[in-house]
Amino acid sequence: xxxxxxGGQPIFILPEGSIRNTGKNVQKNNxxxxxxxxxxxxxxxGPKGMDKMLVDSLGDITITNDGVxxxxxxxIEHPAGKMIVEVAKTQNQEVGDGTTTAVIITGELxxxxxxxxxxxxxxxxxxxxxxxxxxxxxxxxxxxxxxxDIKQQEILKNVAITSMMGKSAEKVSDQLANLTVSAIxxxxxxxxxxxxxxxxxxxLEKKTGGSIEDTELIKGIIIDKEIAHSDMKKVxxxxxxxxxxxxxxxKELEGDAKLNINSPDxxxxxxxxxxxxxxxxxxxxxxxxxxxxxxxxxxxxxxxxYLSKKGISAVRRVKKSDIEKLSKATxxxxxxxxxxxxxxxxxxxGVVEEQKIGGESMIFVRxxxxxxxxxxxxxxxxxxxxxxxxxxxxxxxxxxxxxxxLGRILPGGGAAEIELSKQxxxxxxxxxxxxxxxxxxxxxxxxxxxxxxxxxxxxxxLNLLVELRSAHEDGKVTAGVDVFSKSIGDMAKxxxxxxxxxxxxxxxxxEEVSEMILRIDDVISSTKSNSAGMPPGGMGGMGGMPPGGMGxx
Length: 553
Description:
By secondary structure, the protein is α+β, with helices and mostly antiparallel strands. The chain contains 16 helices and 23 strands.
């Protein structure tokens, strides 16, 4: 409880049970929590990074080295720790890859900040220096980034392989990279002379069984449904596809309306009329020339029978998102009115077939003409493998999309960070105040990436760092950590490439969160009592209860 004295009388300004911490202790505690979170995922960075096994309260296991997945599964409670998790989430949403990089840089920036705080450098001076360093970093990274476009498929493939390195997918990264590049090319659209890629148009379906090598790209859509009626064809070649947003059912009476039937003849007449209406709906579908119907709503059992008699297959209760993807993949229109459709509204696919994958039926819409929505079916021996492959493929897809969004890439393996560090040190010399110390601290902090890559590969950090700095002083901008030969290497020649957007986002997020944490000098934690109006001792005013509760009867 916080109090102030007024003429000898204490003034209570916070509720009972509140805890307040102020001053340097707060900054040190917040920094310690943030650094601890960053250190947790440090060992996962790079091709030689290790995995984490996370077990939740229900005993479910996740095995991964994906930064954002680890932090989400850990359920971190410390407020500063939660802010670090937000860095990873933002990086994942904006870029899809580089979550571990962003978190590690954030942790190192805060670690360097603590050293400056111990030298009595004020937090506002540190944050000002960090902000200057961030702005200069953006300029530096842009200055030596290489151009890339959608026609340079080999470069895009290398970007995908780099993002998958160190994950379970590494041994088949070549095959998966080809799949992801092909998927990106299929869904890309040119709007006003600019290539636009919506990664939501690439569906990822995962099924346990087979091996990672069985992962395939479907030039169309996979729908986790089955054909509605057992008599309908399970394989439809040269499929003419009708998409319906309305039910193939007779509408039920609304509200409190009632229908009185007083004789068997009336009942028979009513059933006959209902059947005629359903038959009429089916006849309208037949008239379009469609041989497969995907319906977002229900299909009456009688309508299913009539459709099967006419040789038309149908799928009911398809998700709206799947209908939208089908429209993009097959170039068909989604019809909301069964009376307003014709042959022009139909889409096309080379084949639509129902297949059993991992013991479950799925519908594959394949061989579409110029599909703008595609699917990747991810396979693997166990659930944990499939989950990790899915994460790797998702990282690769988003990595390629990020590279194409800005049309720029950077050398990986810590090369970009070493060059950035060198340029920041030069930049710091133009300042005479204490901001210079903060900019130099920022320069030291970004070197954590090559240092961690070396550490995870079992390489002497100090010697490698000296060699890397020397190489960059000699103008070798693409020199980085070759974890396989345990020496420095030319990342451009080794095809270790990363999207510029990923680096920019990680630097921006790291600086902004570090600044926010450093500016906190007061933490007030409020805890509400269990029951309003009760004394602090609970029911003590009523005599209380014995330690063993109410005992046994």
